[in-house]
């Protein structure tokens, strides 16, 4: 007996597992809505039949009440005419309709209660159907989001994150090196440009100095090309009185400048 219980439990567990795996939430939700709609249709039909039966019973009850009143009047009329036997028969008919009316009244009360209960159940089921439709759309949206998240997780899990991040870091380092090179070239170019402007902004004294150097160089070449006077003639020239040798040398330099 224990073995049979274990086998039954195992089969049930496997069947439940297969059913759970085969269940598609979206399809189950749609099927649940369809079943609720079918139940509402059947309940509406039941309510309609119950209301129709109530109407028939109510009509029968009203007809019985009319018959009771009619035979009551007939009994009174027979007594007024002095026909007691006929009055007795009228009261017997009245009694029969009274018993029927009592039975109909009991059935009518039961039918009214049943119709009221069916109406309440119909309203509740319609409300649940409306709520289920709203929840169905929300659950479908959640299912879609969950599937998307699951797919994204699978994609992220399947990605080689370490390799991708390492490649990304290498590319970032290369970009930084390239930017540093570009910045160095820009700085060097800026430095050369500044030097050029500094040269343009240099003092005119430099130009004058170069011009003077060039002029003196030209004068020196011209002087070397002219015949030189004997040094003895210069030495033998009389030195004026009261004139220092420095003054004499200065006069000589002046004369050379005059000849330039």
Automatic annotation (TrEMBL):
<dbReference type="InterPro" id="IPR007157">
    <property type="entry name" value="PspA_VIPP1"/>
</dbReference>
<feature type="compositionally biased region" description="Polar residues">
    <location>
        <begin position="225"/>
        <end position="240"/>
    </location>
</feature>
<feature type="region of interest" description="Disordered">
    <location>
        <begin position="218"/>
        <end position="260"/>
    </location>
</feature>
<comment type="similarity">
    <text>Belongs to the PspA/Vipp/IM30 family.</text>
</comment>
<feature type="coiled-coil region">
    <location>
        <begin position="108"/>
        <end position="149"/>
    </location>
</feature>
<feature type="compositionally biased region" description="Basic and acidic residues">
    <location>
        <begin position="251"/>
        <end position="260"/>
    </location>
</feature>
<protein>
    <submittedName>
        <fullName>Phage shock protein A</fullName>
    </submittedName>
</protein>
<dbReference type="Pfam" id="PF04012">
    <property type="entry name" value="PspA_IM30"/>
</dbReference>
<feature type="coiled-coil region">
    <location>
        <begin position="54"/>
        <end position="81"/>
    </location>
</feature>
<keyword id="KW-0175">Coiled coil</keyword>
